Amino acid sequence: MENISTQFNISATLNNFEGEFAILTLETEEQLKWPKEKFPENVHPGESFKLNILNNEDYLANKEVLAKAVLKEILSNGGEKTEGDKKD
Fold this sequence. Notes:
single chain, extended, CATH 2.40.50
């Protein structure tokens, strides 16, 4: 699989939520306000993330690489259920 670009990323940790914003602390110790509506719902303070900066061309290329990898995984499974898919 081709690599998805990680050249321009920075680590961040969710501090808390303040009103309409998630407050992140970057690895540089700077804080960033991120719109809460653009943040996953199932995250909690203390969790770590990678923020990745891409121009539109790189974003589309990475999106295509990821889509191909997911499709390949689905097709190579042959539609059979895996252990994680089986119900008790």
